[in-house]
Each structure stands twice: as C-alpha cells, then as structure tokens.
Amino acid sequence: MSEEAIQDTGSQEAVAAEAAPVSFLESLPEDLRNEPSLRTFTDPGALAKSYVNAQRMIGADKIAIPGKHSTPDEWREVYTKLGAPTEAKSYEISAGDVDEGMLEAFRQQAYEAGLTNQQANTMMKYYTDQAAAARAAEDDKIQGAQEQSIAELQQEFGRAYEQRIELAQNAARTFLGGTEIFDEIELSDGRLLGDHPDIVKMFAALGEQIGEDKLVGEPSEMIMTPQEAQRQIDELTLPNSPYWDKTHPNKDRIVEEVLRLREYL
C-alpha cells in the first residue's frame, strides 16, 4: 500500500473516532468512572431523577425496621411512629352493640398487635359484620325449624290444630303448673321445647286421655283429626257393610256420614 493511501486511512479512522459518541460513564471525571453506584445510569437524565428522589427522602421521617432479636419496646416505638395509640384505652372504636367487656378486650389486643385506630376499626367492622351474618343465619335456621314444626302439626291435626294446641297447653298447666317450661328449654336446633311436634302431640294426647272432668280448661267438644276421621271412614266402609248395600235402609245416612268425615281429611 502506498504511503499516500496509508495516510488517507489514518485520517478516516481519526475522523470516525472523533465522531463516535462518548458513553455517559466515559464523560465523567476519571475518579468517578469506576464508581459501582453509577454503573446503572446510562444518561444524565436518569442520574438527575435519582438525585431528585434522594433529596425528597432526606427530609422524610424514616423508620428503622427492628430485627428478629428486637425487644417489644423497640417494636412499640415502630407501631407508635406508624400511628398506633400509646395506650389501649385511646382506641376510638365504632362497635355498635358489642358488649363493653368484649370491646375492652379487643382494644387491648389491638394495642398489643400495634394496630392503628383505623386498622382496629376495620377489624372490628369485619367481626361485627360476621357476627351479624351468623346471627341472621341462625335465626333463619330456627324460623325454618319452627315453620316445619307448625306444618307437621297442621297436617297431623288438620281442622283440630288450634284445639289440640290448646289441649296440649291445658295438659301442661294441669301437670306442670304452667307452660313456661316450653319457652325456657332450647333444643339443639334452636327451637324451644314447646315448638317440637312430638312434645305437642304427646301433651295433646295426654290431655285427651285424661278426660274433661280432670283437665283444666279442656274444650267441651273435640274436633276430629284427619287420622280419627279416616279411622271412622274405614270402619263405615268395611267390605259387606251397609255402605256398599244399595238396599240397606241406612245406606244414604252412612254415605252422608262418610262424606262429612272426609271434610276432616
């Protein structure tokens, strides 16, 4: 290669080197180029943004997070800086109808957990909402059981329902001196003792067996239950009975009686 060509090539390399952009780190003073904390920055804008953020943090109230060996007092200092009250009684809790004793215990637990007043109220609202939902569900369950009991007794007694309920109450007054026990004993499903069909039917049957002369307040004329009416119908319609004999003189009267009894079914 000629000397002239070599000189021309050298000139081009110099121009290219001069035109190549200088990296951000290379533009810094030599004593900062190898600084590890600056290697993540690729341009002056990123460095400036980091600097601004750092300046904003300088005046902020910083909290040192305690380690696993920190004392309760050190944690208490953190809780206080985060906004927790300095004593349990300082919590202002909106608790509705929560018992005062329970509320006092909740304040103490909130204090020991380091909750702020807002956090404590959030937890209390969750508790009261859950408790209210549980009570509503239990009330619905009890109401459902009561309605089922009434439906069972109405089917059992038919048109005699009101009278048999009164009969059961009169029997309880005669033997127990009152009906209070029916309203005082609660069963496992939430119903009261007096709501259970078997108890009502037992006392109603007991009152019926005793008789009017011994039972206080017994109705003077008993109304048939569906079972009693069906029993009489079965007796009147036995095979070969007058009910089936067109020539029997009592045929019409027996048929009419059967029709009357069927009204109780």
Layout of secondary structure:
Layout: H1 3-19, H2 44-58, H3 72-81, H4 100-113, H5 117-157, H6 161-176, H7 180-184, H8 197-210, H9 226-236, H10 251-262
Give a verbal description of the structure.
The protein is mostly helical. Among the domains are: 16-58, no CATH class; 73-130, no CATH class; 224-265. Helices cover 58% and strands 0% of the residues. It has ten helices and no strands. It has helices spanning 3-19, 44-58, 72-81, 100-113, 117-157, 161-176, 180-184, 197-210, 226-236, 251-262. Helix 6 (161-176) packs across helix 8 and helix 9 packs antiparallel against helix 10. The longest helix is centred in the middle third of the chain and has 41 residues, at 117-157. The protein is elongated, with a radius of gyration of 46 Å. The N and C termini lie far apart (127 Å). The mean pLDDT is 82.
Give start-end ranges of low-pLDDT stretches: none
- Rounded to an integer in angstroms, the radius of gyration calculated over CA atoms is 46 Å
**Topology pattern, helix = H, strand = E:** HHHHHHHHHH
Number of helices: 10
Biggest β-sheet, characterized?
A: none
The amount of helix comes to: 55-70%
Q: What integer is the average pLDDT?
A: 82
Shape: elongated
